[in-house]
Amino acid sequence: MVVNPEKKAIAEKIVSLILILVFGIFMYFIVEGLYISQRTGLLNITAQDKSVSLFIAKDGKSASYIGRGASRIRLYGGNYEIVAVKGETINISRVKLSAKEVKSVNIKNLIKYRVPSIDLVDFEGINYLTDIGVSYPQTEKIKKYLFSFDKNSLSDQIYSSSVKAGPRSRDSTSDFVGFNFLVSVGEKTYNATAQRSLFNDDVSMKLYDKNNNLVFDSQSYYLNLQQGD
Amino acid sequence: MLDSKNLKKLFSSLLLILAGYLIQLFLINGVGVLKLKPAPPELGLVPIFYQESSKFDKLPIYGKNYTLENLKYLENGNWAAATLVSVPGKNKATVVMKKINGVFVVVMGPGTQFSESTLESLPLSVGTYLYSRGVYGS
C-alpha cells in the first residue's frame, strides 16, 4: 500500500503531540504524588465497636463520613476531630496531624449525648396494662414515672406475663384498684406495684428492686414537681 | 495514517499514564487526600445529626442543603440553639447544641416541638430561651 507522505507527516505530528501530552500527564501524577506525600499525614482510625459510624471534622469545616468501624485517611496538617456515632451515643477524639506523620487513633468508649426525652424511650409492653383496664391517660402517667425514675434508659420493658390486676373485694368501697407488673428499666428489673382510679386518670406507682427496697414512689415524683426539682 | 510504529508509540503512552498513576498511588500509600467542605465555626458536626444514619455517606452541605439562622449562645458558650433551614424548601427546625470535648453536638432536634420531659435535663437559661422561641407546645 502506498502511503501519502503528507498524511504520514501529519500523523507523525499528531502522535508526537499525544506523546508530549502523555508525558505531561505522567509528570503531573508524579509531582502531585510527591506534593501530597510531603504535605499530608496519614490517620489510621479503629473503633472497638465495628458498627460505629466514623466522621472527620475540623473547625470551620463540615464533618465528612469516613467509614464504619475503621478508616484510613490522608489529611493536610492541622487539628481534627474524629467523631464516632452509634445511635444515641458519641465519642469525640481530638488529634493533631502534621505533614508526613502517621498516627493511629483507637476509639473505645461512647457516651450518651442526647438530652433525655420521654419521646426517645421505647416503652415495650406498655399496652399490656390496658388489657387489665388501665386507661390510656394512666399508661401515659406510668410512662412519665418510669422516665422520671431513670432518664437515661432508652428502653423500658413491661413483661406481659407479669401483669396482674390486684384482687378487689366485691364489697370494696375504694375508688382505686391495684395492679402489679415486672419492668426492666435500663439493665435492671423492678417489681412495680400500682394503684389506679376507677373513675379518673389518677394512678400511683412504686418500684422495688430485687432486694425489695423501695427505689421509686410516684408520690415523691409529684412532690418534686411541686418543688420545681 | 498510523503505521505499526506509531501504534506502538500510542500503546506505550497509555502504559506511561498507567505507570504514572501507579507511582502516585505508591507515593501516597494508596490513600487519597480528604478535603473537607466549609461550615460555620464550631458547627461542623451539625449535618451528622441532620441525616439518617443510612445516608451518612451523603451528609448535607452547608449553604447547599441547609443553613443555620438565629444562632444563640447560652451558658457561657457551652450551649447554643439555632434554627436549621433546609435548602431548598426553607423548612425550619430548631436544634439545641451542647459542647462535648470542645465541639458543638446536637443534643436535641432538629425538631419543631419538644417534649416537656426534656426540660428537667436542660440548664434553666436554655429551657427559658427555648420556651421563648415557642418550641414547647401543648
Quaternary form: heterodimer
Return the domain count of chain A: 2
Q: What would the average pLDDT of chain B be, to the nearest integer?
A: 88
Query: How would a crystallographer describe the biggest sheet of chain B?
Result: 4 strands, antiparallel
By CATH, the superfamily of the largest domain in chain A comes out as Immunoglobulins
Biggest sheet of chain A, open or closed, and with what strands and sense?
7 strands, mixed
Which structural class fits the helix and strand makeup of chain A?
alpha+beta
The CATH first-level class of the largest domain in chain A comes to: Mainly Beta
Alpha-carbon Rg of chain B, integer: 25 Å
Low-confidence stretches of chain A: none
The strand line-up of the biggest sheet of chain B is 1-2-3-4
Number of helices of chain A: 3
Strand segment count of chain B = 4
Distance between the termini of chain A: 101 Å
Mean pLDDT of chain A: 88
Annotated CATH architecture of the largest domain in chain A? Sandwich
Strand residues, percent of chain A: 35-45%
| Count of domains of chain B | 2
Features:
heterodimer; A: 229 residues; Immunoglobulin-like; seven-stranded mixed sheet; 25% helix; 41% strand; B: 138 residues; alpha+beta; 2 domains; 27% helix; 25% strand
